[in-house]
Design a protein that fits this description.
It is a single chain. The chain is an alpha+beta fold. Helices cover 37% and strands 24% of the residues. It has helices spanning 3-15, 46-49, 97-111, 136-148, 161-167, 179-182, 262-269, 282-292, 300-318, 327-346, 352-364, 369-373, 375-403, 433-443, 447-456, 465-483, 497-517, 545-560, 572-575; strands at residues 20-21, 59-67, 83-91, 119-124, 155-159, 174-177, 183-185, 198-208, 230-244, 247-261, 405-415, 421-431, 459-461, 523-528, 533-538, 565-571, 590-596, 604-607, 626-635, 638-645. Strands 1, 2, 3, 4, 5, 6, 7, 8, 9 and 10 form a ten-stranded mixed beta sheet that branches. Strands 14-15-20-19 form a four-stranded antiparallel beta sheet, with helices on one face. Strand 9 (230-244) and strand 10 form a beta hairpin. Helix 9 (300-318) runs antiparallel to helix 10. The longest helix is centred in the middle third of the chain and has 29 residues, at 375-403. It is globular and about 85 Å long. The N and C termini lie far apart (64 Å). The relative contact order is 0.07. Mean pLDDT is 87; it is low at 483-490.
Length: 646
Amino acid sequence: MTAQEIRKKYLEFFVSKGHKVIPRASLVPQDDPTTLFTGSGMQPLIPYLLGEEHQEGTRLVNSQTCFRAEDMDEVGDNRHTTFFEMLGNWSLGDYFKDEQLAWAWDFMTKIVELDPEKLYVTCFIGDEDTGVPKDTESAKIWKDLFELDGVDAEEVEIGSEADGYEKGMRGGRIFYYDATKNWWSRGGVPSNMAMGEPGGPDSEIFYDFGTPHNEKYGKHCHPNCDCGRFLEIGNSVFMTYKKTVGGFEELPKPNVDFGGGLERIAAAAINSSDVFQISLLKPIIDHLEELSGKNYEQHQASMRVIADHLRAGTFLAVDGVVPSNKQQGYVLRRLLRRAIRYAFELGIEQDLCEQVVPTVTRIYRDDFPEVAEREQQILDAFIKEEKIFRQTLRKGLQVFEKLVVPGHIETLKLFDKNGEFAEKPYTFSELTGEEVFKLYDTYGFPVELTKEEAFKKGVNLTNDADEVFSKLMTEQRQRSQTASAGTFKGGLADHSEEVTKLHTATHLMYQALKNILGNNIVQRGSNITAERLRFDFSHHQKITPEQLEEVEGIVNEKIAQDLPVTWKEEKTKEALKSASGAFGDKYGETVKVYTIGDPKNPFSREICGGPHVEHTGVIGEGGKKFKIAKEEASSAGVRRIKAILT
């Protein structure tokens, strides 16, 4: 079964069980200021698991795209990726353990046809401190399911992960672990939960690839071992309790949240512990072999990094992220630059994105229409980013070689040219914090790449390199702050009449740009004085004079129509469904939404803190017209417009 088939069958299976398919949430959370990315299938559903009613009912299913930047440095082995899909089904106070575990079992063994002999499960061992009991109920359900398929299901108590390495498998099939492994709540283990917070035990499914245990991870193997023999492919969370002053009380309507990694299930389906062999990644690996003329088996780490990073980068861009030096844009830039650096190592020294990104989009375009819709836009942005960085990369590598100076000498046992051990002097090279800063500040060479390059070449950073680099960066920021003293925050110089007029005109222009260029453009910043407005937005090519003229015409038309400008407080989640906002802005539970035109059929709806004119005719008082004075590039994938009233 391909990963695409597994995704499709999963949705169909749970629809047959009365679930409604809900769309994936954006990788850039719209209503969660605590995180840059959607990192789990559960994340967008947390409000509903905590009691809010979902408009689609109590049984939900989807495949949620996820991204975890913290895993970036782990990519290169056979199972880590930064981007992945979570197959998820939820019961919001509806069914519970009996149905959930049986359906999870049937999907894995009957639909995906995984061998029951290769499946192992874990349950919660209980928590004496808080009085939460051992989850024998789930274990009993699992035991019956295994034995119906002819598999002996011995129960074994493990406890902590560390205990697992000491105790080992002991012939078990159902394993009990403590709260660090088999409990879910936002506060972590039960003792750390806040008053009123819900939580509950979870039960995980593991697939056994049968690979030999590596004792560097611990004396004995067990399902939660990191050696690679076992891979978690699904987890059912049973949100059962609420923490109170008197202890843990059972919720009147407990919830179920299941998450199964699509890539991992697909790897199990082909019985390969290498997730890069599945149908969502292997075509990218095959293309890299073709482009480089090199074999995957001999260059696994490099090809895995490139395949993962370009796939992740593509989906970040689909969801509106453009390469930049801030927040999500910085992460995307780092992904692309790491991919390009590893491609350089494979001998692919140009056109990586242009050649490989279409392979990524071909894999996903049929199942995710937004990938097809934004393919060219993504490609244009990535090609531009690659061109800029390749120049930086070549220059940075040249400077790197010049900066590295011989350091201390040690006598080591090394292989000589005849393949025999011999004692020889070895010169260690060093790189200082000042030099790391110079590479970054003068040549734009990313710090992460400097460190990776140093590691590859056996170059040590001096003991104080990080401290010195941080000190120099702090001094640079202080200089920048001094240089920008007297500038203003929030994009507005003041709340004067002229600034207010231009601010409202900016709203009109933003919507006009969307009308002409497409709704995918997103505000990246603004700066408005009494003399002019400056507006930055995502777009990957120069705007034509004809398009600018159309934008001007729309704005002046709306000014002449003297449309009303009104506002009201709205819940953030609802507002973001129909109102524009600035990319990266973090909002509270409610926001102020300004509407230009008839609220039932508005020209513009935008989240904003004001101030605005009361009707658009004020902008044109004295016969003034809106005029675009300049259009230019602001940064990679971002355009800037300056406009005036004249």
